[in-house]
Design brief:
The complex is a heterodimer of chains A (114) and B (114). By secondary structure, chain A is mainly beta. Chain A has no helices and eleven strands. In chain A, strands 2, 4, 5, 6, 9, 10 and 11 form a seven-stranded mixed sheet that branches. Chain B is built from no helices and twelve strands. Chain B is an all-beta fold. In chain B, strands 2, 5, 6, 10, 11 and 12 form a six-stranded mixed sheet that branches. Chain B has a four-stranded antiparallel sheet with strand order 3-9-8-7, with no helix packed on it. The chains are: A mainly beta (114), B mainly beta (114). Chain A binds chain B through residues 4, 31, 33, 40-45, 48, 50, 55-56, 91, 93, 95, 97-108, 110, and chain B through 4, 6, 9, 32, 34, 36, 41-46, 49, 51, 90, 92, 94, 96, 98-107.
Chain lengths: 114, 114
């Protein structure tokens, strides 16, 4: 499968713990995006990378959140000192930078904070 | 800033009936518009997109959407609903000035009755 892959698919953690999600984009795509989706809502933009450069960050991305894409390939999203409000689906998407702007999504990482 | 409004968080139709899911957008630049579908516990799959050219866009699974600039709308239709169409549908607008970041509407859950 050459689509966007995310790991883990599900994560249950206790409040205050740190969690990290990984995203492997489609190999030739230079843009990578993170979104958060809560139940019954549309995805909300968190941040995006062009190659290894993080070019845009949402105000939703508090100081407890950090994202990296060190070699311009896979990306990680870390949440420190998790809170119950962090419970959500974290979606990763990639694109080849086409003018049409189509994004290809992974299946998401669902976080449950107890 | 761009925004997307989807009227009706839940739509119920009978199998074989017309499907109409509404989407209105606001954008300061000519928009690129998208419809994505999400099945339970899965990522988002592109149904169709409008970039330029023909305003009636055909997508997968028999869906189509028409871009109406004067109404700032991009409604999704399908002539005859199938049970397998039951899912969450998201309309989105692309911001070419922000790395083609997508802004999503709140989603519409389509239910298909036998």
């Amino acid at each position: 499968d050459t689509g966007v892959s995310q790991d883990p698919r599900h994560k249950i953690t206790k409040r205050g713990q740190n969690v990290t999600f990984r995203c492997d984009p489609i190999s030739e795509h230079n843009r990578l995006y993170w979104y958060r989706q809560t139940l019954g809502q549309g995805p909300e933009f968190l941040t995006y990378f062009q190659n290894e450069a993080q070019l845009e960050k949402s105000r939703l991305l508090s100081d407890r959140f950090s994202a990296e894409r060190p070699k311009g390939s896979f990306s990680t999203l870390e949440i420190q000192r998790t809170e119950q409000g962090d419970s959500a689906m974290y979606l990763c998407a990639s694109s080849g930078g086409l003018a049409s702007g189509e994004l290809f999504f992974g299946e998401g990482s669902r976080l449950t904070v107890l | 800033a761009q925004s997307v409004t989807q009227l009706g968080s839940h739509v119920s139709v009978s199998e074989g009936a017309l499907v109409l899911l509404r989407c209105n957008y606001s954008s300061s630049v000519p928009p690129y518009l998208f419809w994505y579908v999400q099945y339970p516990n899965q990522g988002l799959q592109l149904l169709l997109k409008y970039t330029t050219g023909a305003t009636l866009v055909k997508g997968i699974n028999g869906f189509e959407a028409e871009f109406k600039k004067s109404e700032t709308s991009f409604h999704l239709t399908k002539p005859s609903a199938h049970m397998s169409d039951a899912a969450e549908y998201f309309c989105a607008v692309s911001d070419a000035n922000a790395g083609n970041m997508l802004t999503f509407g709140g989603g519409t859950r389509l239910m298909v009755k036998p």
